């Protein structure tokens, strides 16, 4: 059931923005999402074996020790940043990653590693599927935050569903709920931002 705050969101306006952006963006053929998992265990094949046995598709498993030794320079970190769509990280090393991955990963908040529980007795498949089906919202000290909710190759309905679910989640998360939100916009990284909700100041209060 939609919340009272969600009733203020004009779904027609959201739908028009989604259609306009997807029409503007050249649709690309769908391809598997490149995933990189950062693990804290020593170099061995046990992680890969477990992932394979549980039918989990991960492009690369990068050990914590290898991250420390082979990705020291700015260029190497930049290459790593651009090589994968999504980064997952063992919860046990999350606090150590900002200093190792560098500002590129955290500056725009788009590829901040998503924490997963990779302890031996945890359900890896469930953890990874949960991480892949969710998105990360980082509220900074500024007035704008970015949330990734879809890709250009998705269908209108899929993006629409993601947008509404994201807005609903943000409203619950943000202090003061919808009253704490000035506007929602949709955009690609290289497109104009299309408004889907704006809380305009009451002009009559100024007179």
Describe this structure in words.
This protein has 207 residues and is of the alpha/beta class. It folds into two domains: 6-28 and 152-200, no CATH class; 35-132, Rossmann fold (3-Layer(aba) Sandwich), CATH 3.40.50. It has eight helices and six strands; from the N terminus they run αβαβααβααβααββ. A hairpin with a 7-residue loop joins β5 and β6 (194-198). α1 (11-24) packs across α8 (156-173).
Helix content: 25-40%
CATH class of the largest domain: Alpha Beta
Weakly predicted, low-confidence segments: 27-34
Mean pLDDT, to the nearest integer, reads 77
Helix-strand string: HEHEHHEHHEHHEE
**Cα distance spanning the termini:** 39 Å
Give the total of domains. Answer: 2
Summarize the structure.
The chain is α/β, with parallel strands linked by helices and 207 residues long. 37% of the residues lie in helices and 13% in strands. Helix 1 (11-24) crosses helix 8 (156-173).
Please tag this protein with its features.
207 residues, alpha/beta, Rossmann fold, 2 domains, four-stranded parallel sheet, two-stranded antiparallel sheet, 8 helices, 6 strands, 37% helix, 13% strand, globular
Structural topology:
Elements: H1 11-24, E1 35-39, H2 46-53, E2 60-63, H3 64-70, H4 74-83, E3 86-90, H5 97-101, H6 103-107, E4 114-116, H7 124-132, H8 156-173, E5 183-186, E6 194-198
Parallel strand pairs: 1-2, 1-3, 3-4
Antiparallel strand pairs: 5-6
Helix pairs in contact: 1-8
């Amino acid at each position: 059931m939609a919340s009272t705050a969600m009733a203020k969101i004009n779904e027609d306006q959201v739908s028009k923005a989604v259609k306009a952006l997807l029409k503007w963006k050249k649709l690309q053929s769908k391809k598997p999402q490149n995933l990189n998992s950062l693990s804290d265990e020593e170099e061995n094949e046990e992680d890969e074996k477990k992932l394979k046995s549980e039918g989990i598709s991960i492009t690369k498993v990068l050990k914590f020790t290898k991250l420390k030794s082979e990705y020291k320079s700015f260029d190497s970190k930049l290459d790593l940043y651009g090589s994968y769509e999504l980064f997952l990280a063992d919860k046990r090393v999350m606090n150590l990653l900002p200093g190792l991955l560098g500002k590129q990963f955290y500056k725009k908040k788009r590829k901040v590693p998503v924490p997963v529980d990779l302890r031996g007795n945890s359900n890896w498949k469930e953890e990874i599927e949960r991480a892949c089906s969710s998105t990360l919202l980082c509220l900074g000290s500024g007035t704008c935050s970015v949330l990734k909710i879809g890709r250009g190759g998705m269908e209108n309905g899929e993006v629409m569903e993601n947008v509404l679910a994201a807005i609903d989640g943000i409203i619950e998360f943000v202090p003061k709920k919808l009253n704490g939100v000035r506007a929602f916009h949709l955009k690609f990284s290289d497109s104009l931002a299309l408004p889907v909700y704006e809380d305009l100041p009451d002009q009559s209060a100024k007179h």
